[in-house]
Structure formats: structure tokens, C-alpha cells
Design a protein that fits this description.
This protein has about 325 residues and is mostly beta strands. The protein folds into two domains: about 1-25 and about 280-330, no CATH class; about 25-250, Tricorn protease N-terminal domain (Neuraminidase), CATH 2.120.10.60. About 15% of the residues lie in helices and about 35% in strands. A hairpin with a 6-residue loop joins strand 6 (about 90-95) and strand 7 (about 105-110). It is globular, with a radius of gyration of 20 Å.
């Protein structure tokens, strides 16, 4: 009962946030004390990331996930691309359980990818890889096998460059964040020719986290990590417009520890797609506090109406799923 009261209190406190319309975000986090040095899967409000929740260890020892994204059906995928100090499994594609955080291999290969992103225009997953600070290639990732196909080089990037962020908008245009020039580039169409879009106001970004919320109006999110005022690093969620007119500094994952290290260094940031109008529990075609009240009543009564994850239990994950559906709005 104590646990249920805590969850209900969380939902009541989050109701105003849900009305404000911000989706829950997910990220792999390497800043933790897991004995096998595996990343954690975390969930957070991108407008207030310091309130993040650790879902669980991704369970892949000694390896970091540099790319993560959802497909159009709401399945979460991650790509392991670099080894930690003690070495680890090979690079490759993993499917991620959003309830436990556990990542399961789909296909292991030797192709490194700095980031992955889903293209809603053609329904495919893609990845990018920079070599020798002068060549960045585009790859298609086959979700059924984990195999990757080389689609060629990007043109128009500064030299040297290091692409650490990658995203698609709703029209299938690509966006790339370059660590060297502290800039975001965009393709003018669906080709691999890019032009500068935004000069980032923060120097020394080494983040791998960028996504565009293509199912809710193409808001851009950048999980910016880098060197701040010594000895403090910055780790925060910033937003940008896809037309390049705005880039807004957001809140941090802090507070940092005594050595200036933030508690979260996201390997990427992923937002689930909007999922219809599941949260309209009273069926009036609107999402408001009456639907929140209906969810609270059903949750308290352990009614199937509140089992948003469909796992037969009633816990924080149902609250999160309801809030995500609430934030998605009605078509």
C-alpha cells in the first residue's frame, strides 16, 4: 500500500506537467556504479531532467550504447558502438525492454556507429559513422537482422569533423551534430548533402544525444554534454527549432558530484512516438483532469483500465505509459 500511495502521489504531482505537453524521454546512462560496468536505461522529463528515473541496467557488460531511438511502433532500439576500459561485447543492434531496461542483441557486427535515428518518412532505421575526422558515412540498419548497409558519404561537412548526434524530422530530412565545430547541420532534401543550420552557444560539446520529436511537431532535443567552467561538466537537455532560428539552453541532470561530474551522461536521447488517444479514458475526445481522475480511480482499484503496459501489474511503468499517452494528445 505504501508503494501504491507513492505512485499515486507521483501521478498527482505530474498531472500539471502532463497538461503542459512534454513527452517522457529515454537514454542510456554510463555514469553509474554497476559492477559489470553496464549502462542504465533512464527515463526523464526533458524539461526537468534532474528528476530522472533509473529503469534498470541494460545488462551488457563493459560496453557503451552510443545510439538509441524508437521506431514508429514504439519499439526501443539501441546500438553498442564503443568499448569501456575493460573491453566488452562486439558492436551491434539491441532491442531494449522499456520495463526492465535489459538490452537483447539482434545482430552483432564490427561496424561502429556513433548514433542511430529512425526515419518516419520511409519507416527505416539509419546510423552514421565518422572516420579519420573527415569522412562520415550513412548506413541503413536492418531491424530484423541487425545487419547494416553502407549508403555512402555525406558532403558539405567541415573538416575536421566528428558527428556525434543524428536525427530525422517528419519529412525525412537529416540533422547532424558536429563535435568539432559545435554546430548542427541539415540536409536540404533527403540526400546526403548537408548545410550548416545552427551554431551551438556552448563550446566543447562531446554529446552523442540528439533527436527530433517528429510525431509531435518536430521539436528538436539535444542532450548536450561537455566541458563547462572548470571543474564542472555540463549535462543538460537543450531544445532547438528545425528551421534553425532558435536553440534554447535547458535544465541539467545535476547536481554534479564533488569532482564536477554530472550524474547522467546520456549516450543518446529517444522519444516514443505519439500513440493516438489512449489516455481519453472518459471517451469525450479531450484530454483533461477528468481523464487523470479516471486513471487514478482505476489504478487505486487495480482495474484493467489502468494497466497501460498490459503486464497485469500496477506500478510506476503504468503511470509513465499513461502520461506518455496523455502528452501525445488526440489526433
Amino acid at each position: 500500500m505504501k508503494h501504491m500511495n507513492t505512485v499515486l502521489g507521483c501521478l498527482a504531482g505530474c498531472a500539471a506537467l502532463a497538461l503542459a505537453g512534454g513527452p517522457s524521454a529515454y537514454a542510456p546512462n554510463s555514469q553509474n556504479n554497476n559492477p559489470d560496468d553496464s549502462d542504465d536505461l533512464i527515463m526523464f522529463d526533458p524539461l526537468s531532467p534532474s528528476g530522472y528515473t533509473v529503469i534498470g541496467s541494460m545488462g551488457v557488460g563493459n560496453i557503451g550504447f552510443g545510439g538509441m531511438d524508437f521506431d514508429a511502433d514504439g519499439n526501443l532500439w539501441a546500438y553498442a558502438s564503443y568499448y569501456k576500459s575493460t573491453g566488452g561485447a562486439a558492436s551491434g543492434l539491441y532491442s531494449v525492454d522499456m520495463t526492465t531496461g535489459v538490452a537483447s542483441p539482434v545482430g552483432i557486427n564490427l561496424q561502429t556507429l556513433q548514433d542511430i535515428a529512425f526515419n518516419p518518412a520511409d519507416g527505416k532505421m539509419y546510423g552514421v559513422n565518422t572516420r579519420q575526422a573527415s569522412m562520415t558515412r550513412l548506413y541503413e540498419i536492418h531491424l530484423d537482422t541487425g545487419l547494416v548497409t553502407d549508403l555512402g558519404l555525406f558532403s558539405g561537412l567541415a573538416t575536421p569533423h566528428a558527428i556525434n548526434g543524428f536525427a530525422f524530422d517528419s519529412q525525412g530530412r537529416m540533422y547532424l551534430q558536429d563535435q568539432n565545430s559545435d554546430a548542427i547541420y541539415v540536409t536540404d532534401d533527403v540526400s546526403t548533402a548537408v548545410t550548416p543550420l545552427i551554431a551551438l552557444p556552448q563550446d566543447n560539446n562531446f554529446s552523442q544525444g540528439m533527436t527530433i520529436d517528429w510525431s509531435r511537431g518536430d521539436v528538436g532535443y539535444h542532450a548536450a554534454v561537455g566541458y563547462g567552467a572548470f571543474p564542472n561538466y555540463f549535462s543538460q537537455i537543450n531544445t532547438f527549432s528545425i528551421d534553425g532560428t532558435t536553440y534554447t539552453l535547458g535544465d541539467s541532470f545535476g547536481p554534479n558530484d564533488q569532482d564536477g561530474i554530472p550524474p547522467v551522461q546520456p549516450g543518446d536521447i529517444a522519444l516514443p512516438p505519439a500513440a493516438g488517444c489512449e489516455a481519453d479514458l472518459n471517451g469525450d475526445g479531450q484530454l483533461d483532469f477528468f481523464d487523470v481522475s479516471a486513471f487514478l480511480s482505476a489504478f487505486n482499484a487495480m482495474d484493467d483500465l489502468a494497466d497501460f503496459t498490459g503486464d497485469g501489474s500496477f506500478d510506476f511503468f503504468d503511470v509513465s505509459a499513461f502520461l506518455s499517452a496523455f502528452n501525445a494528445g488526440c489526433p
